[in-house]
Q: What sequence folds into this?
């Protein structure tokens, strides 16, 4: 492709709203433009990246035995009502009405649509297993669309759905997708980590996420993995061993109210009480967190030295939207300012306790009164709870649940995920087949997503430098860019044109910067757009029959004879990721 023939609107400055380097670079390098919040246009370079990545995905899905289809972006609300997710999807679901006033959904995922396709049509065990996938646009009214293509309201996803007759075959289908995912991300130049994840609103039996670890602030996912064994999990799911189990009193003591003027944080309370009563440790202090669950208050109790994990917590609460209560709600619930909440005396509010709290005796909690705490509160005697479970977050340095190793917590970008759904959707939507005994059974389903637009941005976040993007070769828009420093000079132009023709004929995707611009502008743009290999043609070296060959990820420059450039480019591409 000739630069002057395509459209690569590079910019000097990044848009003000771009926080992530990958977002800034994709805009500055002329890959994407924002139409509205979370809605992007893919310009020619991005289109090529998307096509290259999609092709990798397609090849690996096909090789794993999946078949490609295309489902509609639009679905009647009834399809979603059948599974019950029309009610639970919350405000993330994009909805609209047609001219007759009927309700529609712009699909954010396609479990419902595909299940309604197979229900009543895929009838016999002989047609199983079956795995169908598509690469298609999804719509989600994300609370915080941000980071460019990372979290859009419209984005492209590959989604696959497997149908199996029994659980063994279901596991096999799942494993095939997992294997394919590792191959896909590897071919795209990305090291991915597969971690156990929460099944969340999707439901089902087990789920995994594929995460690209990044050092920058781009990661929205926290994952924790052991520095010693293979244990890895999404932070929403991660567990750990208690390193400092608290000494538990044998006797319950009398409830005692103490004045704690102006001490609200756990550290302040511990310090204050220590000074006054000595034997107080943070583990005996229990934090009472008040949350707003779809407009109603709920309470979480966790040990003072722990952090709440909201996803784990919501697995008990089952709210569509769960957020920390504001000051007004806290005051209404406790009758006290923030910092003095406690479970004793709270009426008609669901209280969820972390498992660790159940084991404690004589705990210290807020007394729902300004500047007051209780000492020696005890479960059942002084307060009751609605339910308990594991609701705390694992942190860096915690003990691995399986070995003596320590957990490392890193940020990563979720690029794909896999869900073993079991019979959840097939049962709720009545999708059944006849087994080999002629008995009607629900399908075992799996669902598997990959972010087709998010993954390339994750690659940019992972691979860039101060000058621009450094694409992995298999998803780069062009593998090679030729930069004649002055395209108006005959010898330079002729050499550039002939190398361009030769590489293109050999099937190497090549971009020729045939603009009349200054050399500096062209070289800066080449670094910015990030093709993995650059051929620079300058008058001086060309006099000796040479051009300069350089990999984008290195500062080494090789002088190569024009007649040998094709071989040299091939050899260089071989060595690149
Ligand atoms: P997240 O936790 O990031 O919201 P998710 O669990 O909602 O992701 P899925 O519904 O499983 O994601 O979607 C499959 C894949 O689609 C994700 O792994 C991700 O790569 C991509 N994806 C999800 N939401 C978005 C979005 N808003 N913008 C771009 N890509 C997305
Ligand atoms: Mg999501």
A:
């Amino acid at each position: 492709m000739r630069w002057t023939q395509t459209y690569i609107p590079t910019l000097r400055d990044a848009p003000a709203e771009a926080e992530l380097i990958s977002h800034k670079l994709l805009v500055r390098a002329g890959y994407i433009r924002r139409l509205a919040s979370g809605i992007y246009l893919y310009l020619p370079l991005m289109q090529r990246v998307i096509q290259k990545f999609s092709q990798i995905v397609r090849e690996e899905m096909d090789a794993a035995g999946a078949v490609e289809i295309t489902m509609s972006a639009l679905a009647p609300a009834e399809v979603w009502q059948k599974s019950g997710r029309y009610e639970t999807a919350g405000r993330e679901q994009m909805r609209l009405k047609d001219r007759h006033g009927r309700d529609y959904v712009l699909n954010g995922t396609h479990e419902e649509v595909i299940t309604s396709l197979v229900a009543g049509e895929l009838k016999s065990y002989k047609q199983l297993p079956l795995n169908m996938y598509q690469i298609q646009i999804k719509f989600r009214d994300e609370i915080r669309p941000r980071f460019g293509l990372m979290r859009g309201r419209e984005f492209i996803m590959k989604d696959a759905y497997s149908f199996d007759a029994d659980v063994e075959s279901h596991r096999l289908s799942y494993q095939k997708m997992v294997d394919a995912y590792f191959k896909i991300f590897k071919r795209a130049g990305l090291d991915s980590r597969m971690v156990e994840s929460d099944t969340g609103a999707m439901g089902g039996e087990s789920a995994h996420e594929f995460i690209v670890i990044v050092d920058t602030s781009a990661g929205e996912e926290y994952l924790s993995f052991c520095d010693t064994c293979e244990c890895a999990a999404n932070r929403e799911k991660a567990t750990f061993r208690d390193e400092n189990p608290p000494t538990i009193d044998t006797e319950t003591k009398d409830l005692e109210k103490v004045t704690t003027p102006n001490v609200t944080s756990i550290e302040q309370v511990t310090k204050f009480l220590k000074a006054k009563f000595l034997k107080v440790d943070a583990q005996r202090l229990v934090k009472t967190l008040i949350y707003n669950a779809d407009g109603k208050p709920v309470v979480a109790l966790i040990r003072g030295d722990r952090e709440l994990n909201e996803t784990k917590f919501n697995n008990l609460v089952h709210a569509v939207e769960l957020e920390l209560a504001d000051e007004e709600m806290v005051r209404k619930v406790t009758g006290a300012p923030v910092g003095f909440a406690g479970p004793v005396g709270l009426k008609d509010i669901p209280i969820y306790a972390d498992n660790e709290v159940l084991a404690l005796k004589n705990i210290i909690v807020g007394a729902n009164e300004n500047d007051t705490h209780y000492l020696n509160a005890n479960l059942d005697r002084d307060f009751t709870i609605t339910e308990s479970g594991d609701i705390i977050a694992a942190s860096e340095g915690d003990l691995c649940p399986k070995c003596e190793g320590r957990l490392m917590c890193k940020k990563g970008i979720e690029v794909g995920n896999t869900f073993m759904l079991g019979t959840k959707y097939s049962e709720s939507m009545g999708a059944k087949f006849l087994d080999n005994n002629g008995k009607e059974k629900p399908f075992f389903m799996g669902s598997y997503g990959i972010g087709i637009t998010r993954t390339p941005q994750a690659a940019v976040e992972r691979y860039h430098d101060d000058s621009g993007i450094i694409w992995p070769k298999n998803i780069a828009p062009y593998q090679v860019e030729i930069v004649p420093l002055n395209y108006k000079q005959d010898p330079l132009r002729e050499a550039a044109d002939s190398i361009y023709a030769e590489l293109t004929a050999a099937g190497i995707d090549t971009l020729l910067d045939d603009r009349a611009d200054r050399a500096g502008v062209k070289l800066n743009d080449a670094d910015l757009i990030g093709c993995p290999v650059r051929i620079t043609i300058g008058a001086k070296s060309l006099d000796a029959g040479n051009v300069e060959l350089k990999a984008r990820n290195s500062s080494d420059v090789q002088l190569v004879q024009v007649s040998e450039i094709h071989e040299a480019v091939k050899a260089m591409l071989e060595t690149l990721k």
About this structure: Residues 432 and 441 are 5 Å apart (CA to CA).
